[in-house]
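not sure who needs this but someone in the group chat was asking about DUF3060 domain-containing protein from Flavimobilis marinus so here u go. i didnt clean anything up, its just raw.
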Amino acid sequence: MIRRRLAPLAIATAVSASFLGAAPASAAPAPSVQTVTCGAQTVTLDGVGTSYRLRGACGKVVVDGAGISVSMTSAKRLVVKGSNVTVKVARNAKSVSLSGTGATVRVGGSVTGLSTKASRSKVVVKKKLGTARIAGSGVKLRAGATKTVTIKGSANDVRVTKLRKLTVVGASNYVKVSKGTTKAKVRGAGNTVKIRRAR
């Protein structure tokens, strides 16, 4: 509704500008996607609002800056820094570490090890997750079958399909395990742990 009402005004403004000899303002161009070919060397990506597409199997990838968007097939080691960074890994990532704020990482395969000191971030692992260590606050983790999760922070939200071992030291954390048997040790105030036992 708002766009339709403003459309005649935009046209009138452009016509008036042409009569006055001034060029009408043009819309800002959409950000282009930069393509980078991975190899054995470390790939470092930074900037503000830049989009990257990585080709091939990547070794170590470091993502820094602000508002960066990255897509790749796989990575041996993924290091995410900066703020409001979005990373999509189509297959597997052996090691993933996060710091900074507002990062979102989605892995279509499995992750061997996850470590995060980030705040207000989200990690989604579609398949298996080995070890997860969460030391930040406001982190959301979603994963399939997971071996161990260690939380040392507050207000984190963890939901996994299966979990062998859980350690929580902090306050106001939420953990939900959909099925299986979990060995849990919880310390701190206001923590909620829901484990659905296998029948």
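also The chain has one helix and 17 strands. if thats useful
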